[in-house]
């Protein structure tokens, strides 16, 4: 008997999200399997961030389902999703600027029992160890992004969702951030990456979906999409 394919870790079925009369996401379906890095790319306003907000439980969809390991979590509150391992790094970092670096990191570990071990984050981002007692608002943009990622990792995600991690950062910093994502993915973490830098996202991801006006128009292996004439013309300067 042939082995049945494993169910995806995350599946979205026909998701629809509206803001008043504006339909931000419509009939959106995608899936992420354990161990994958999946990119969700598209132009500004395509509905990428709204999709992540719905996955995190910060906005409620008008229709459709969100399945986590086959279980319908569409109406779960945000904190329950984090406890289950669905963790987001928000657009713009969303760090608490009047708290120290250490305090921000400790908040990331808050849902987990016991005293948090910050050493793995400090080993990955040594600059944060040096800045641990400083206010997070005094960090550079790149350091704040490191802090946001480190804080999310302390929540022990099973799926890490990142919303525009390269936004507003210098090219050399973007390179370092993407290299960090590559490393943590290679160590086994499943990642859903929302990113306007389509070229970088397709280089990094295993699979990708192209989102336009709130719906998926293309999907497949990232390398194949990078060579698709439609993607090249629209996003890669072809």
SSE map:
Elements: E1 10-19, E2 22-32, E3 37-41, H1 48-56, E4 63-68, E5 71-72, H2 78-84, E6 86-89, H3 101-108, H4 119-124, H5 126-130, H6 141-153, E7 159-163, H7 171-186, E8 190-195, H8 198-204, E9 207-212, E10 215-221, H9 222-226, H10 229-235
Characterize the structure shown.
- There is one protein chain.
- This protein is an alpha/beta fold and 238 residues long.
- It has a domain at 27-95 and 156-235: P-loop containing nucleotide triphosphate hydrolases (Rossmann fold), CATH 3.40.50.300.
- It contains ten helices and ten strands.
- The protein has helices at residues 48-56, 78-84, 101-108, 119-124, 126-130, 141-153, 171-186, 198-204, 222-226, 229-235; strands spanning 10-19, 22-32, 37-41, 63-68, 71-72, 86-89, 159-163, 190-195, 207-212, 215-221.
- Strands 6-7-8-3-9-10 form a six-stranded mixed β-sheet, with helices on both faces. A four-stranded antiparallel β-sheet has the order 2-1-4-5, covered by helices on one side.
- Strand 4 (63-68) and strand 5 form a beta hairpin.
- Helix 3 (101-108) runs parallel beside helix 6.
- It is globular, with a radius of gyration of 18 Å.
- The model has no long low-confidence stretch (mean pLDDT 91).
